[in-house]
């Protein structure tokens, strides 16, 4: 059985106090139990330590990005070792906002994935097409490049530690969600790429999350799809009620 995962990307939101308030609410709500097998939150770097120290042990904490090098003269950057030393256990790699606004390429992201896995941390690797790419019917080609160039240098044990998030860029923060058919079609395609490269057993065990305007109203329909194993949630992850409702949408 694949792991059902719901992860919240808090992006560049919440001060230390605001993050602590959200954590308090989440802690209250997870006490009642959730259906997802794994819950992850991705606070900003400045909030990771306080979130790790105050959040319920059943919720994993991750970083939204990392630098690919171990250490050195990279002013303003944060290494995997630094993130790990906070108690965080997961790192998001290749979110579309990192790709679009910070020029992160598949080649660079492959190095970041390596850095995360070298520290025995969990990598959540994002892929997804823009609207013009979908309209030009180019989305499968784009996703295939993102997956193969970012991940297919890994060996079997490496790929097994990766969670993939499919996030169509046109659905992120727009209120326009991919239909469950559109999500399923791409998730099945991603799984078929993994199967071709690593075989059926590995393909069947990798969790593939959907992201893009996922909310308590549409989560159940999306999560019902055969190859949709959970969600990477942006806006709705900033409201404890919505996030936990999504985590119970199985
Ligand atoms: C995201 O940024 O990963 C995301 C899915 O955002 P939203 O849920 O707000 O569309």
UniProtKB/TrEMBL annotation:
One of its GO terms (molecular function) is triose-phosphate isomerase activity. The active site is at 95 (electrophile), 167 (proton acceptor). Substrate binds at residues 9-11, 173, 213, 234-235. Signal peptide: none annotated. Its EC number is 5.3.1.1. Keywords: Cytoplasm, Gluconeogenesis, Glycolysis, Isomerase. InterPro entries: Aldolase_TIM, TIM_sf, TrioseP_Isoase_bac/euk, Triosephosphate_isomerase, Triosephosphate_isomerase_AS. One of its GO terms (biological process) is glycerol catabolic process. The keyword Oxidoreductase does not apply. Pathway: Carbohydrate biosynthesis; gluconeogenesis; Carbohydrate degradation; glycolysis; D-glyceraldehyde 3-phosphate from glycerone phosphate: step 1/1. It catalyses: D-glyceraldehyde 3-phosphate = dihydroxyacetone phosphate. GO terms for cellular component: cytosol. It is an enzyme of class 5 (isomerase). It comes from the Bacteria. Gene3D superfamilies: Aldolase class I. PANTHER family: TRIOSEPHOSPHATE ISOMERASE. NCBIfam families: tim (TIGR00419). Homodimer. Belongs to the triosephosphate isomerase family. Involved in the gluconeogenesis. Catalyzes stereospecifically the conversion of dihydroxyacetone phosphate (DHAP) to D-glyceraldehyde-3-phosphate (G3P). This is Triosephosphate isomerase. It comes from Acidiluteibacter ferrifornacis.
